[in-house]
Specification:
This protein is of the alpha/beta class. It is 37% helix and 22% strand. It has two domains: 135 residues, Leucine Dehydrogenase, chain A, domain 1 (Rossmann fold, 3-Layer(aba) Sandwich); 122 residues, NAD(P)-binding Rossmann-like Domain (Rossmann fold). The radius of gyration is 19 Å and the shape is globular. The structure holds 2'-monophosphoadenosine-5'-diphosphate. The site of 2'-monophosphoadenosine-5'-diphosphate has 16 residues, from helix 6.
Length: 284
Amino acid sequence: MITHPDNTDARDEYAVMGNPIAHSKSPRIHSLFAQQTGEPIHYRAILVEVGKLPEAVADFVAGGGKGLNITVPFKRDAWELVDERSRRAERAGAVNTIKIEPGRLFGDNTDGVGLVNDLRHNLQIPLQDRRILLMGAGGAARGVLAPLLEQEPALLVIANRTPERAVDLAAEFADLGTVQGCGFDALENLQFDVLINATAASLQGDLPPLPDGIVAEGACAYDMMYGAKPTAFMKWAQWQGAAKVSDGLGMLVEQAAESFYIWRGVRPETRPVIAQLREELADG
Ligand code: ATR
């Protein structure tokens, strides 16, 4: 039998869809996972026109694709598109992982568990009974709230530039734990053990308007953004005496590992992949 060269690749197809997508690290991460585990997968990045996610997903499914990651700005669209959602995706109001099953799209959200795994396992930061500050009240903050509250912190405060958004978000998650919303001014005289930046400020090289003195002794500061250099928030936290400061590269790899597990039933080791990506980031 003569087979077309394209059909000789027996690997299962996966992809990440977003806009922009050219700089996504997901193809690199999943190819490192595939190498490490021996799972026969091929993973690529697909640029999707805003408003065209359903068509792009349908094409991918028709081509025999097995799973997708969904990134900015389509996580809400994906939430609406899937046939069934995990509990954590339901709560996050966003889907970043789709498992393509016969006649059905299953949507999950691995961002929150990615953050919690990076904090707890890679950075060795306990969350139970700790005072957590979550900055931002957009999609990024919403996506991690339930998994953070599941860790039973003593208190979780959401602070946002537009205070009402933080208050509303806190009210929505109040059934899961002690959570309050406020503006940045209201943080004066409070102290936190874990400070997490989920605002888009770092993207613009900005710093949320944080008062001095809110970083408790031994505290950890975490920016969900990552890059070759520390963000303005990371520098501020260091200056304020934080014991540990981290960017979000570990969260990115951890959320990818959870997606890989959902698709393949195999959990890749994340540490060597984080180390590899860190090296590649530094090299530019
Ligand atoms: P995402 O999905 O990344 O969370 P988003 O829904 O647009 O994006 O939310 C962006 C978040 O970053 C918001 O909490 C926003 O604050 P507002 O709700 O007041 O707009 C916050 N943000 C953006 N730029 C900021 C800045 N320069 N300083 C502080 N907060 C900022």
